[in-house]
Design goal:
Structural class: alpha/beta
Strand content: 15-25%
Mean pLDDT: 94
Distance between the termini: 18 Å
Length: 354
């Protein structure tokens, strides 16, 4: 047995005295989410929004056309409005966004579950596509810790070029910087995984059970994208529709009980329809006074759910005559969600764990 087989740092058997230390081989599990600004002040928001909105996977307009508009017009104003929205939901106790707080909790729960099952073979951590902690910094840390294999897990149930693909892009760019590249796997979308659907269904059932007056309809609100992306082959729209169908079937509900809508429209293009903010107002005007909204495309509550769904979309419904609006939180670090994520990770570790 070589020294490298022992815990911690060692020296390879029969290696010369000046051979660099060798870490015990591990497998890395790197969770990835969208990202978060470091603060809700103007400059923190500007740095974050500039990185996010400069991503060609997110905004694919030619740079010569988009960047002057972004840097001189959009980023002159939007950091103020976005910062004000973040301030409404900011975790002041930890001085971080809710997405950061929840992602930390998810990572801790997943790490504990995997350690209980597999001991110290795995190193579990998280990164953000935009902002901190960066993907590159976490890949570097895993390689330095002796991870010779890494499973990279974008925490998006549904595939989209602007989410899963750009996260993978950043992961591969980070690998390009490593002298000793680890073997790598990327976790695919899990929008129809039975345990994910079960976790969603349990969250809906708990909300219905807690409601004194039951909602008349459930709205499954997914993050939107330009309709053009669908026509170019992005499967996101179809995967969202299937998640809604599987959730409805698991709940045993009639088709008219659940509607699929899309939120977070940005820019002048037509996006996937119906738009959530318009749809809930239309429902109120049609006489649906009690609705619930769930956001299945988000693995953790964030600005798009806590401020947009539970703020702007709620207001749209009530201003149109709606009376009872129930927001069903994201799955976050609930036990059913953690079990689903751990199972997906283990499925993607097949053959690597002995």
């Amino acid at each position: 047995m070589s020294d490298s087989d022992m815990p911690g740092v060692g020296r390879l058997a029969h290696a010369p005295a000046d051979h660099p230390p060798v870490k015990r081989a591990k497998i890395g599990v790197l969770l990835a989410n969208l990202g978060t600004p470091d603060g809700h002040d103007y400059w923190s928001m500007r740095r974050y929004l500039s990185e996010f909105l400069s991503d060609k996977r997110v905004i694919d307009y030619p740079s010569w056309k988009w960047q002057p508009l972004l840097q001189t017009v959009i980023l002159a104003k939007r950091p103020f409005t976005s910062g004000a929205n973040y301030k409404l939901i900011w975790n002041e106790a930890e001085n971080e966004s809710p997405l950061m707080t929840i992602t930390k909790a998810q990572t801790a729960a997943i790490a504990a579950a995997l350690k209980a099952r597999h001991g110290d073979k795995l190193m579990v951590d998280f990164c953000m596509r935009y902002g901190n902690p960066s993907t590159a910094s976490k890949v570097k840390a895993m390689v330095a810790a002796g991870c010779e294999k890494i499973v990279f897990f974008p925490l998006y149930p549904h595939y989209a070029g602007a989410t899963s693909a750009t996260a993978n892009d950043q992961f591969f760019r980070a690998l390009m910087e490593e002298k000793r590249q680890p073997a790598a796997r990327t976790v695919p979308e899990y929008f129809d995984h039975p345990l994910y659907i079960e976790a969603l269904a349990q969250s809906v059932e708990q909300a219905w059970e807690a409601a004194e007056v039951k909602p008349e309809k459930l709205i499954a609100s997914y993050h939107g994208m330009p309709k053009r992306y669908l026509m170019q082959g992005d499967p996101y729209h179809c995967q969202c529709q299937k998640t809604t169908r599987l959730l409805r079937e698991r709940l045993g509900w009639a088709p008219e009980m659940i509607d699929t809508t899309f939120q977070s429209v940005f820019g002048p293009e037509e996006w996937l329809r119906p738009y959530t903010v318009e749809h809930v107002a239309a429902l109120a005007r049609q006489g649906h006074k009690r609705i619930a909204v769930i956001a299945p495309a988000f693995s953790a509550d964030c600005i798009e759910t806590l401020e947009e769904v539970n703020g702007e979309i709620r207001e749209s419904f009530t201003h149109a005559g709606g009376e009872e609006f129930t927001y069903i939180p994201c799955l976050n670090d609930t036990p059913a969600h953690v079990e689903a994520l751990v199972t997906v990770i283990e499925e993607n570790l097949a053959g690597w764990l002995r």
